[in-house]
Amino acid sequence: MFYKSDIKFTDFSELVNSVRVFTNKEAFEEKSELHHRNIALQDPKKLLLDSDGRILYRLSNGEEVKIVLYVDYQHFQNNYYPHDTPIENLNRYHFYNCQNIEVIYRNGYRPSGTTREDGAFPYKFLGQFGEEFFATQHQQLLPCEKCLDIFNNQHKSNLGIYHFKLEYLQLSE
């Protein structure tokens, strides 16, 4: 049994955040979907940018969370076996507002967003007419080189596409 004297808060914001999770089920479900799978980002108006140019997503309760944006599908010729596709030939993930984001929307692609930091993206391999060949929850993708250039400039680093890790983005903060 807990007594009032047993409870000590060092940071009241932790309690406030915990209560918000339980009082706003829709936002909680959105966060869960962003973390465990992805959310389709049909409306670019739900995307925001922080002061560093990082991509944010506005939840239904108004809270803003850092996300990674990517196109979660790729079309192949019907006689092609997608398991043989080198990672370099797959879509890249984006975490800054680089020039490629506008191209994605302008060309009619349907991007998705996620907060996963394990580097395993939900991904679909589709035939030329949209039929699904193969789907996975754990596709490794490479970062967008333009986003990586921005990251390297801001953090005075020199990471290459094969050495960058999503944990560096601190999506869960």
Quick tags:
25% helix, 3-stranded antiparallel β-sheet, 173 residues, alpha+beta, globular, single chain
Task: Give Rg in angstroms.
Answer: 19 Å
Structure annotation, total helices: 4
Percent of sequence in beta strands: 15-25%
Average pLDDT score: 81
Major beta sheet, specifics?
4 strands, antiparallel
Low-confidence stretches: none
Q: What is the total number of structural domains? A: 1
Look at the helices and sheets and give the structural class. alpha+beta
What's the total count of β strands? 10
> How are the strands of the largest sheet arranged?
1-8-5-7
Topology pattern, helix = H, strand = E: HHEEEEEEEHEEEH
Question: How far apart lie the N and C ends?
Answer: 32 Å
Q: How does the overall form come out from the CA principal axes?
A: globular
User: Percent of residues in helical segments?
Assistant: 10-25%
Structure characterization notes:
The chain has about 170 residues and is an alpha+beta fold. It has one domain (about 40-170). It is about 25% helix and about 25% strand. It has 4 helices and 10 strands, in the order ααβββββββαβββα. It has helices at about 10-25, 25-35, 100-105, 145-155, and strands at about 40, 45-50, 55-60, 65, 70, 75, 95, 110-115, 120-125, 130-140. The strands form 3 sheets. Strands 1-8-5-7 form a 4-stranded antiparallel beta sheet. β2 and β3 form a beta hairpin. The protein is globular. It starts with 11 loop residues before the first helix and ends in an 18-residue tail after the last helix. The model has no long low-confidence stretch (mean pLDDT about 80).
